[in-house]
Design brief:
Blueprint: E1 5-10, H1 16-19, H2 27-35, E2 45-52, E3 55-60, H3 65-69, E4 73-74, H4 95-116, H5 123-143
Antiparallel strand pairs: 1-3, 1-4, 2-3
Helix pairs in contact: 4-5
């Protein structure tokens, strides 16, 4: 079985809860309703993590990545790179501080999402969470 691919998208779903990056709404619902008209994409996106600033990380079936990217603004190539849009220095904050706080928030959102669902029932999703959280924690060490 192919591992799940991670994408970063930007999209506004006309949902205040998701726009704020809160975990009180499950953005996967909005994402699925955007893409479900295409039969091949019905089960393409397995998980959506709200990150604020209208950005979301997605766990996506590898074969559908290009198609899914056509529905949203695809920021995947910059995700967790030094030019990650979430790392852009904010007013009164250095790049280092912004990146560190974005990563801290990201780790929190991933851990929350992982705890809210029955990850154990889906080994691919469990592996996806594990490897993404390890990657985020490695970067947190770098920006500390
Ligand atoms: Zn929402």
């Amino acid at each position: 079985m192919e591992p799940l691919t991670t994408m970063r998208i930007q999209a506004s779903f006309d949902c205040n809860i998701c726009t704020q990056g809160s975990i009180k709404c499950n953005p996967l619902r909005h994402i699925q309703s955007e893409i479900q008209s295409e039969p091949g994409l019905r089960n393409a996106v397995r998980m959506a993590i709200p990150l604020g600033k209208n950005q979301f990380d997605l766990a996506v079936e590898f074969a559908t990545v290009i198609q899914v990217g056509e529905y949203f603004t695809d920021l995947s190539r910059w995700r967790l790179m030094s030019c990650d849009p979430l790392f852009t220095a904010e007013l009164g904050r250095s790049y280092q501080e912004t990146a560190f706080s974005a990563l801290t928030q990201m780790r929190y959102q991933y851990n929350m999402a992982a705890s809210l669902i029955q990850v154990s029932g889906d080994p691919r999703l469990a592996n996806w969470f594990k490897s993404e959280i390890v990657r985020i924690e490695g970067l947190l060490e770098q920006y500390r």
